[in-house]
Amino acid sequence: MKFALLIAMAFGGSAAHAQARLYYEQTYMRAPHNWAFRESYPGADHLFNAFDYGHAILYETLWRSPNASPSALDEKQFNFITTKLLVHPPSVMLDEAAIAPDFAKLAPEIGEMFEWAHMLHRQIYDVLADERIPDSQRDARVTELVEYYRSRPALALSSKPKSMELMEGQSYSLAFRRKFPKYNGLIWSYHWYQMALYDALLAGNTLAERRANVGLVTDRFWQMLRGGQSSLPAMMPMSPAIATRFSARYPEAAIIFDNLHSLHDVVSDILTNPSVPRAQKRSAILAAGARYRDNISFVTSADEWRSMALEMGVANMGGLPPLSRAP
Q: Which pLDDT tens digit goes with each residue over 121-135?
């Protein structure tokens, strides 16, 4: 399998075989709701495919060209993504290892962690988008998906909220956003859109209302991109501020996604910051991944997680999603 091979390249010898037993690929949980979101909201689904490119080319650029100028991402890639790729996004999911082969060889375990969490994202969208599922049954379906996700402890992010110190208080922290502020805002706009879509689906009582909400959220996403850097999120969007309905109804999943988005930032910081020697970047990335998986490191309470999100200011994170139905 792809990641078993990449881990063998990263480790070599018996350690590779031990790692491969933990970091193998696994597909969606078998369920009748699979691909429901893609069928009902193909435009939004295709944007997710473009988001995968944005993350992958980011890591590949940072690892392959450690001295890359800010323009490499803030101008060249930002302009390509916002004027071409997102305008005509891929209709199929992308193989991120093909886009970022060097990064995939550096930390295949982290790549598989990201992929496993992104799969949870997509399957929860499916549950919320499937019109055949009564609303009274959605909670049980989401719980089942989270349990399926947690069945892979080598990949699953913690459902305990992590403090901002883990993302912003380390020796390497903040390096990426300082060097590449515009591309950083682009990544945060992705995260805003992903979380806002949950509330767009939950706020509607009918297919027509849900489609209207998804359209409003997508329009707002494009306003962010077309408004320049000042209109992009200035802080990492957090679920309790951006997706109030989803975070209240599915806090465990919301925390997992906030941890996922934080880990994305941390990997970018480690790759960007020259204070982490190149020979130590892999170990630093894996250490960060382990901290985000465990239920001990830098853990804060659910109440503090919610308060922290609100204190950071929803306007700084892109604002509340525009929805046709009030909370």
A: 999 999 999 999 999
pLDDT of residue 20: 56
- Total domain count for the chain? 1
> The domain containing residue 224 runs over which residues?
27-317
Which residue is listed with tokens 């010898």? 13
How far from 106 is each of 31, 268, 291, CA to CA, in Å?
A: 34, 13, 18
Q: What is the mean pLDDT of the chain?
A: 93
What pLDDT, on a 0 to 100 scale, did the predictor assign at position 228?
86
Residue 326 Ramachandran class (φ > 0 left, ψ -120 to 50 alpha, else beta) = beta
pLDDT given at position 29: 82
CA atoms within 13 A on the CB side of 310: 9
What's the gap between Cα 146 and its chain centre? 16
Is residue 9 situated within a structural domain?
Answer: no
> How many whole angstroms separate alpha carbon 300 and alpha carbon 317?
21
Of the candidates 134, 149, 152, 236, the one whose C-alpha atom is nearest the C-alpha of residue 195 is 236
The helix/strand/coil state of 299 is strand
Structural domain includes residue 10: no
Round to whole Å and give the CA distance between 10 and 38: 35
Mean pLDDT of 138-153: 97
Higher pLDDT, 1 or 113: 113
Asked if the structure places residue 15 within a domain, the reply is no
pLDDT, tens digit, for every residue of 209-227? 999 999 999 999 999 999 9
Long-range contacts, stretch 36-41, CB < 8 angstroms, 24+ apart: 36/126, 36/127, 36/129, 36/130, 36/131, 37/122, 37/125, 37/126, 37/128, 37/129, 38/126, 40/129, 40/131, 40/207, 40/210, 40/211, 41/129, 41/211, 41/214
Q: Is residue 143 part of a domain?
A: yes
Query: Is 0.85 topped by the overall pTM?
Result: yes
Residue 327's pLDDT band, with cuts at 50, 70 and 90, is very low
Beta bridge partners of 162: 299
